[in-house]
Fold these 4 entries.
Entry 1:
Amino acid sequence: MSSAVETRPSTSLGTNGGGDGPRHVAIIMDGNGRWAAQRGLPRVAGHRAGAEAVRKTLRAAAEHQVEVLTLYAFSSENWRRPEEEVSDLKGLLGYYLERELDALDKEGVRLRLIGDYRAFGPELVARLDKAVERLSGNSRLTLVVALNYGARAELVAAAKSLAGQPAEAIDEAAFAAALDTAGLPELDLLIRTSGEVRLSNFLLWQAAYAELLFVPTLWPDFDEACFAAALGEFSARQRRFGGR
Ligand code: FPP
């Protein structure tokens, strides 16, 4: 762990054995629908290709010694999509977990869920809980999947959980500890694919000091090289920050 005194809470400087890589990377995986439309395919084909991009990105994150990878897989706004697409996304999530569980375990991946994923129904919830349990002993990389997640709802829930406490006891640390992301390292880098330049209610508190990177690549085309390029951009910004 870094013992350097830093002017912002990011823990990325001087960590990872002295490297300047991010400890915690989050991604808004956007552009599956457009990727499918460009090929005349149904949207579900874009989500399927997006699941493959998840596999590649996870591998790249582990190789680059990223400690936490947080993925926005289903926002609380996604319920507004057609029923068929919601059902496809849920099915894909269950399928991906089942198919990848052994590989995730072998690669030392721990799984954590944020958001109100219990809304997904008992069958998927049971599979999700089982996967979390099965991977709970791992420590190489924590994969955080945001499911039925919305940052404003997370902040409101945190405020409610702290409401009974004396005002003096509520500081930034107490607030951070009441969020779904409690205990995770500070978010260093937030990437959004597909050229959209919005946070869309994702990790609003956690992104306070993160580097934000918006790339034109549609999510299904995102791969190991794209991840490495994002880390390169992050490191270049860190060097500029450190040189001030
Ligand atoms: C955004 O593209 C993507 C999503 C809403 C879903 C992301 C889900 C996956 C990549 C599937 C599997 C996830 C895991 C963790 C295994 P969009 O549909 O909004 O694309 P568009 O903006 O081009 O329409």
Entry 2:
Amino acid sequence: MDFKLGKFITLEGSEGVGKTTNVDSVCQTLDDLSIPYIRTREPGGTPMAEALRTNLLAQWDETVDGLTELFIVFAARLQHVQGVIRPALASGKWVVCDRFTDASYAYQGYGRGLDLKKMAVLEEWVHGDLQPDLTLYLDLDPEVAANRIADREQDRMEQEQLSFFHRVRQGYLARAAADSRFQTVDASLPLVEVQALVCEQVKAFVSTHSEGSN
Ligand code: Z5A
């Protein structure tokens, strides 16, 4: 499908910043405005992509190369874009997605040090004509974020050093500064305040884009 009637909203940020919690707020705002949407996530969103996610986050008794991670997340993304995101947008539904390709740039590009120009070729190949319309970037010091999820069992990526998450944050900040589709939210504020800011951003976006065409 090569057209879209719905809008594509993504939430981004390092682990523990509150993305999942705030996806709820985005969905609640769309519900209040009677806008039809689907809620999904990356890596994941289809049975095969969810299986790839499990592989990405699992502990392996071998070194996992950053390029291997990149191919896993883009393979999952292709399944997700073709099977879920494009059909939903083409049918007029909005898509609310917990992470998308900005996460690949932040984690595999800035975090693992992969070549950003080569990543752009892969992005173009997989979904060159499809980009989020609005990206809510939740910004938080990685140390504070790690403390928020300290009582959870940590997956392979969450066990990375703090320096890795500082590079990830720098990656997100660089991308947010370079593209007007980003709205940066201070995720260090109390949850109710973050939720209010997220709700405000979504309402502002809806008021300028609700006519339903590109
Ligand atoms: N990954 C990748 O490497 N490349 C890619 O291209 C993609 C992903 C797409 C899984 O992502 C991993 O995939 C991720 C990057 C990699 N690895 N890491 N690390 P994920 O999004 O599923 O995993 P996550 O980032 O680890 O999600 P999370 O731990 O569930 O964090 P979150 O969704 O941002 O946070 P939360 O669960 O909403 O909130 C965490 C806690 O903080 C919770 O108790 C909340 O109640 C609390 N919270 C939330 N907001 C606040 C405020 N404002 N104040 C106080 N407490 C708060």
Entry 3:
Amino acid sequence: NWSHFTNYHPHDKGVKDMDGQVAKERIDFLRETLEKLSEEYYELDTPSVSDAEYDRYMQELISLEEQFPEYQTDDSPSVRVGGKALDSFQKVAHQTAMLSLGNAFDEGDIRDFDRKVRADTEEVTYVCELKIDGLAISLRYEDGKLLVGATRGDGEVGEDITNNLKTIHTIPLRLKEPISFEVRGEAYMPKASFEALNAERAAKEEMLFANPRNAAAGSLRQLDPKVAASRNLSYFVYGLTGTTLTSHSEALDYLEELGFMTNPNRRVCRNIEEVLAYIEEWQGKRGELPYEIDGIVVKVDSFSLQEKLGSTAKSPRWAIAYKFPAEEVTTKLIDIELSVGRTGVITPTAILEPVRVAGTVVKRASLHNEDLIRKQGIMLGDTIVLKKAGDIIPQVVSVLTKHRTGEEKEFHMPTTCIECGSHLVRLEEEVALRCVNPSCPAQIREELIHFASRNAMNIEGLGERVIAQLFAEKLISTVVDLYDLKLDQLLHLERFGEKSATNLIQAIEKSKQNSLEKVLFGLGIRHIGAKAARTLAQHFGTMEALEQATEEELTNIDEIGSKMADSVVKFFAQEEVQTLIASLKNHGLHMEYKGPQVVKESESVFFGKTIVLTGKLTQLTRSEAKKEIEARGGKVTGSVSKSTDIVIAGEAAGSKLTKAEELGITVWNEEQLVVELGE
Ligand code: IVH
């Protein structure tokens, strides 16, 4: 019962005239109180005071620590709110390598594992645990104090993200015994926090996180610990290094006594049948958990047997990860919606009866093109099976023809553009249908969206919805019009207030200072991705110089091929383009190269990772993507194997994506790639 804490009146004695001794006592009291309250709230789920009361204690502690800096410590609960931002993350070598686990996909794989484990022992006890879908984190404690917390990195060397980890309430800053060791566990974002975060981001038109794992990783990769502090992350410990205990199950109990949060759903199993029953049970119940799991980890309990079995270079022989199959659900295809892209390509999208799959509600799935619709035999009104490829991209798996009622209708692509009515064409060697009318309003709107997007002019507050609104209100019809927008025009619009309107005008104004490559990419020259735009900006320095460039000059640049050169020359030869550029210049756009953007290798998520690119990328070419990844310390390879870390799946990705899913490898879409490259 902690109620006596609440009877204390902190301001009985004015903080100002408090002497050092009294302050020290009060600080100690506040720290102890906050630690207890935090444990009640975050670990025991039995808060005894209101959030506001907790915040008052915290504020009082922070202000006392500010006044008496001599009493500041780095394990005070006040570090949980997140201190100063860093310039970069340091590298840390792990005391022992952070291995990963071998994968099992079915009962046979689990039985094989058991057979190998029992090669020269009859009886084995296993511990089964949930495989939490977050990111592996190592924590080093010295004399019971949290010293360093790091990401896995390449397994040998990770990144020091201690400041961010200290904001996680379920990571103890001080242990109940003064011991020195390293523990391993999983940092994760609970489902509810993930959904609240995405709802908040949607309201601000910010990019949504694809799943809780990405959201957790993104939060912990921020240099400013206040971001992590605001994200409600949590941590389950699942192992430790260097101990005199004799089994994993004892080790977990001990970690719990020390003050860590272990996952309560672990189970000691005396044989493989019990292990299989545990897997089956949790495969069915995973949806009930407040956090995402992607499988079950099976570990040999005895440390001496673990040691005897040893490890390969990548993973221990005493443990295995059973990966759940990608969740598949059935839903109804209500309609097929068509959209016209920036380059005129018509893309069909399935409009689905909303259905929850792999952590989020899905309402739409790309159907790519008519050929694929035919091949899958999809009809309007069909009941379909849906999954998320690589747990991210919604995909129609198959049609359940036995559910047909006869009411289903065949789908045909139109012959004319849905927006401007001009005749659609199928270019040679392409499956896509295109609208080739350069003044098609849909294309213009998409061009505007592209111009304002992150890798282009990066105009904050000017997302798809706002552009569509401005376009529909006829306030903008070319990118130049953006720079003519006036505050009072915005104030007349729905959903615009004084503040949002002022912010938008300021963001547009600020974009005038952008370096040349941003403008170039924003103009959407065919075959010129974000990387090529940077190369051109670097080489020519100004828009004028680039406008004068000949095809020969262009192809002489490393990285610029003849297709790109041809496209650039043709682009600038157009009279409308000349007018557009002159007009942008008149509006005060700089269009000069501002120097290289420095990317620190070790700060990058790509550092030490093996990456495979597959499918069609639209924002940058494959070779650009490869160079960018390599510049950040990643390796790009051609085929998917167990040692692949990330597969980047563009449009209509095929067998490599399937393989990645089978192997349980992280899959990103192009959007995520671009975001990570831009960070
Ligand atoms: S044990 C020596 N236990 O799954 C390997 N891992 O490759 C130690 N994970 O990224 C891993 N829940 O972070 C273990 N209960 C659990 C886990 C777990 C999630 C993650 C781990 C690693 C991956 C396995």
Entry 4:
Amino acid sequence: MTRGLRIQTGIRYRAGVPKLRPKTGMRKGLTAYGDEEFSLFLRKAFIKAMGYSDDALERPIVGVTNTFSGFNACHRTVPELIEAVKRGVMLAGGLPVEFPTITLHESFAYPTSMYLRNLMAMDAEEMIRAQPLDAVVLIGGCDKTVPALLMGAASANVPAILMVTGPMITGDHKGERLGACTDCRRYWGRFRAGDVDEQEINAVNAQLCPSAGTCMVMGTASTMALCSEALGMMLPGGACIPAVMAERMRNAEATGARAVALAKERLTPDRIMTPAAFENALRMLLAIGGSTNGIVHLAAVAGRLGIAVDLAAFDRMGRNTPVLVDLKPTGQHYMEDLYKAGGAATILRELKPLLNLDALTVSGRTLAEDIAAAPAPFPQKVVRPVKSPIFKEGGIAFLRGNLAPEGAIIKQSAMDPKLMRHEGRAVVFESLEDLANRVDDPKLDVAAGDVLVLKNAGPKGAPGMPEAGYIPIPKKLAQKGVKDMVRISDARMSGTAFGSIVLHVTPESAAGGPLALVRSGDRIRLDVPARKLELLVGKAELEARRKKWKKPAPRAEDRRGYRKLFLESVTQADRGCDFDFLAEAPKVRVPRKV
Ligand code: FES
């Protein structure tokens, strides 16, 4: 037996022993110098400069991602949350170590935050793997940060627990509650229509984001928070607590404490994020009338674990999963109301017969046990019972047809029911620039029954699949009171938006999908109940157009750096827009049986 030599910090060296077992704490992921004991010796020398005691360095090490930025108001509270997480880690006997990762805010990420999500996921994955972490607390919140952190954690497969910054509270304007960003769009639409003057729009602007935290409607941040809780990656009750409440700090403390247990139990993300858990998250997405972005992000996270989301099966799941949550943009309430109504547990309790209740969560219990441990139900008006839902099917429908051979989606719970079956004349915009230049042109040939089509706004086209699918109603129609039209694109849409909007058309236009062949004047038929999206142009004519089609010319900035990597590697929306070299080969498809 080799005898250990104890040197000052309390970490034991074993000279001449090539492999140290188990590799935890400071012994994990040693920098490669060809001599592991020297690597450990050097590491200790540097970590001692941080002032840690010997005792501290022998504890389980819990990394805490610092996603704070002066540009990210959704993450304004991250510094105080980190303090609370650290307190929890230390109370449970661990050593918390904070480290920075990329952060992303929707309004401060050019050209779009989606373009940078994979960069953040790569950063999170590599830093989790590179540093000696026995567990990691992922602090996310704003739309792309939660999926990016989950994608990175799934690939690194170190015990991980997610917490979100939490939603904003609502603002007020002339006695009316306001919230980002549904009311941003509503008031901007009124301003465009001349209904609201400049003074009032400025007053509203100051009330839309009245506190730290994430958008407080059922946008992508709220959607991903609730789906993550259903997925089992967050402590029960964590999704809905408003950012500015003391309870949010207690949630952070509990998350830190639980991270130490995860380190000891070696409870890795692949044991939590199983096919059964993704089915639970997809049910949640449907039942909350969640953001259409949720399906892209869940597909990307699942893809990291070799789990493919089958959109046709997801659509079948939607046929028996009603929308239960009455939140804006389609309903009445805001996230703080859902929190007061019991949060995710109230929804999960209603969905119980449809869930995989044996799925393990980061709490160390099954989902059934988590639901049973939640506070007892009470009368409330935010989450409807399954017997009287807001919408009898799930919020998102999957469409197919000759215009979208690999599919497209529509948030059917957020559209004008009169447009569920609609045929109209296409009015085509070739790009985002073309849209910006012409949509408000008084000479634009457009009528209320037309179908607005936007090309080249997909994953490669824009690039980054911006949230441009919410094509504005042309000003001259808006001024006549037109509130909704069928709109079709390969772009995404903010979860805070609403309307009869077909999104994620796949393959995208820039990749030569049939969307690239549509011309103004063509007829398009949308049939949501039949799940059909058809371009009513004959095969021969489409073939002739295809022969003439030219791939968009590369832009100067496409030739180098992250942009080059992105354009060469990004997958289509149905695969989550992840990079092809980051996803695992699919081994199972979800939902499995519907
Ligand atoms: Fe961050 Fe809406 S902008 S959640």
